[in-house]
Amino acid sequence: xxxxxxxxxxxxxxxxxxxxxxxxxxxxxxxxxxxxxxxxxxxxxxxxxxxxxxxxxxxxxxxxxxxxxxxxxxxxxxxxxxxxxxxxxxxxxxxxxxxxxxxxxxxxxxxxxxxxxxxxxxxxxxxxxxxxxxxxxxxxxxxxxxxxxxxxxxxxxxxxxxxxxxxxxxxxxxxxxxxxxxxxxxxxxxxxxxxxxxxxxxxxxxxxxxxxxxxxxxxxxxxxxxxxxxxxxxxxxxxxxxxxxxxxxxxxxxxxxxxxxxxxxxxxxxxxxxxxxxxxxxxxxxxxxxxxxxxxxxxxxxxxxxxxxxxxxxxxxxxxxxxxxxxxxxxxxxxxxxxxxxxxxxxxxxxxxxxxxxxxxxxxxxxxxxxxxxxxxxxxxxxxxxxxxxxxxxxxxxxxxxxxxxxxxxxxxxxxxxxxxxxxxxxxxxxxxxxxxxxxxxxxxxxxxxxxxxxxxxxxxxxxxxxxxxxxxxxxxxxxxxxxxxxxxxxxxxxxxxxxxxxxxxxxxxxxxxxxxxxxxxxxxxxxx
Length: 529
Ligand code: PA5
Prior knowledge:
Elements: H1 4-14, E1 16-18, E2 23-26, H2 34-55, H3 82-104, E3 117-121, H4 128-136, E4 145-149, H5 154-164, E5 171-177, H6 183-198, E6 207-212, H7 216-224, E7 228-232, H8 245-253, H9 258-271, H10 281-292, E8 300-305, H11 313-325, E9 342-344, H12 355-360, E10 365-372, E11 382-384, E12 387-388, H13 389-406, E13 411-416, H14 421-441, H15 450-474, E14 480-481, H16 482-488, H17 495-507, E15 511-514, E16 524-527
Parallel strand pairs: 3-4, 3-5, 5-6, 6-7, 8-9, 8-10, 10-13
Antiparallel strand pairs: 1-2, 2-13, 11-12, 14-16, 15-16
The structure holds 5-phosphoarabinonic acid (PA5).
Organism: Pseudanabaena mucicola FACHB-723
EC number: 5.3.1.9
Function: Catalyzes the reversible isomerization of glucose-6-phosphate to fructose-6-phosphate.
């Protein structure tokens, strides 16, 4: 084990500081050796070259034959064509113009002078960024208060709508879906349309779409005469869309300074283009992940932001990292099962939960601490002589970092001065680029999501089976057993699926299951009319 003096030296040797952002990255508690850094140099030469090509407009997502342009969003001048540059800048201008009109009441609901709420409908990359940013800047007097429908759970939808109550009449609905065909978003929209209709409100006067150019959702929004649409492009992935219209529209409407978020990302992008691992914070992160997980995801990344406002950063990173890096095949078609598992919540809260295992249990992880230097903008009382609550937060973070290290558990610490639009934009850009670098290091495509698409298709198959089951029961005047149904539908290999569908329909009073519920094969069923 290194002595305190050696560790202090290692800390100083590896500490990265960005003066304009006030952001530090400390990878001194990841136990790589100088030899390891030397070994990684050629891999990083390739990673830097890959990033240069990607930013210049190469087809960096070969499976889908797409460019990968989220870095252009905050530096439009580097976008490869004039048309793309214009699209990016015009969209930001339009978002600001639209926001101004909503805030001043030029655009308002039919029955009131102003909108009071936003209801954002979307899932995955079309929800997690907006949720994370909303939490970062939440306050009592936001111009519009945001709620989210990000699932197919009817009870969850009921709760969101119940909490909105009468304010539905002054709610602006954002339907966010790049493809414009994701079932969760489409169902959320239909449920909300129905709620508006039930309340005697004209949904079209409340709705805007943020969606892929030419998508079914865009066509629907135009045909229905919705308030407006903002574009998503095929060169922006869902999980890297926070700084596109997907994230900027809800952020601007909540009074968040989107130009500052973009500036923070722009500054971080400039810093992470430097082709030297020691001077490039994203390269430092990617190298540390590679070392800690042996370039094979052998250890998980536990993200611990010691700040309530950053609570959702762990969830946001979980998607960004796992959906990008979790891939079966590498770019040469070899089966590699790559990935980096990410989980986390927040410190110091988690110290009273799973940090017990982190400190003493199975050492299958490395930690990432996110530290915020400024406690609060308001003065807080001393809780004991010379000590305020925020000092405890620092103490807990430092104490956990040291205890983990002493017990052979490595960590990275990212420190920002405060949670501001500038630093949040920078954090997003830092991790986006670390993911891009890591993908190059392990030779995978970080920009497609075949597993997500497969999940969407598998869900559709089950629903198709349900429709067949229901229509068969409709046409039958006697109860049928599972086996009879599976035989009639020529779906014997799907008999278990049919059972799960039947049990769900029974629980929701759509069909009646007769027989011993503990013996699925004996059950008979009929439709409840
Ligand atoms: O990052 C991704 O690509 C996904 O998580 C998508 O954002 C998610 O599946 C939602 O897709 P869409 O925006 O097309 O509705």
